[in-house]
C-alpha cells in the first residue's frame, strides 16, 4: 500500500493586526488568495487528502478553510510551532492513507527536508516559504511505519508560482 502526505505551511499571515497573540494572527489578503489557489491546485492535480491534521492557530485554520478540500480536519495543539520530531509523532498517529499536515516553520520545513529521500530541484524548498506544499508518497501500509528519509517527493509548489500562472 502507499500512504501520501500533503505537507503545507500556512499561507501568509498578517503582522499589522490587533490580534491578541501570535496564535490568533489571521491571514493577510495575499495569504487568503494563496490558500484558495493552493486548494485549487491540489484538486486539479488529484492531491486531495482524506484527512487534515492541523495546528489550531488562526492562520492554519483559515488556510484549511480557504483551501476548501472537503476533508475533515482535526486541530492538534502539538503542531503549533512543532519541531520535526513532533510532526513525525503526530503523523504516525494518522489514520487515513492520504493525510495533510498543516503547520508552521521552522518545524515544517525541517520535517520536509528530513522525510523525503531526495529534495526537489527547487530554489524555495529549503526555506519552505508560507504556503509551500509538498506531496510525498511512502511505500508503507500504515503511518505508524513512517520513518525519516523514506518518502518519494511527487510534487512541490509555492503560491508565487500559482500567482504567475
UniProtKB/TrEMBL annotation:
Domain of life: Bacteria
Protein source organism: Parasedimentitalea huanghaiensis
InterPro entries linked to this entry: His_Pase_superF_clade-1 (IPR013078), His_PPase_superfam (IPR029033)
PANTHER family cross-referenced by the UniProt entry: OS09G0287300 PROTEIN (PTHR47623:SF1)
Pfam families the record matches: His_Phos_1
UniProt name for this protein: Histidine phosphatase family protein
Signal peptide range in chain numbering: none
Amino acid at each position: 500500500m502507499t500512504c501520501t502526505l500533503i505537507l503545507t505551511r500556512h499561507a501568509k499571515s498578517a503582522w499589522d493586526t490587533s490580534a491578541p497573540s501570535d496564535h490568533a494572527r489571521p491571514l493577510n489578503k495575499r495569504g487568503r488568495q494563496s490558500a484558495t489557489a493552493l486548494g485549487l491546485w491540489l484538486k486539479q492535480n488529484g492531491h486531495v487528502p482524506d484527512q487534515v491534521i492541523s495546528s489550531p492557530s488562526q492562520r492554519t485554520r483559515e488556510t484549511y478553510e480557504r483551501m476548501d478540500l472537503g476533508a475533515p480536519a482535526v486541530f492538534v495543539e502539538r503542531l503549533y510551532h512543532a519541531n520535526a520530531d513532533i510532526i513525525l509523532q503526530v503523523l504516525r498517529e494518522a489514520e487515513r492513507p492520504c493525510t495533510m499536515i498543516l503547520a508552521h516553520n521552522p518545524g515544517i520545513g525541517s520535517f520536509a527536508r528530513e522525510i523525503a529521500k531526495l529534495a526537489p530541484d527547487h530554489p524555495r524548498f529549503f526555506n519552505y516559504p508560507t504556503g509551500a506544499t509538498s506531496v510525498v508518497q511512502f511505500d508503507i501500509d500504515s503511518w505508524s511505519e513512517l520513518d525519516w528519509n523514506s518518502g518519494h517527493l511527487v510534487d512541490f509548489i509555492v503560491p508565487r508560482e500559482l500567482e504567475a500562472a
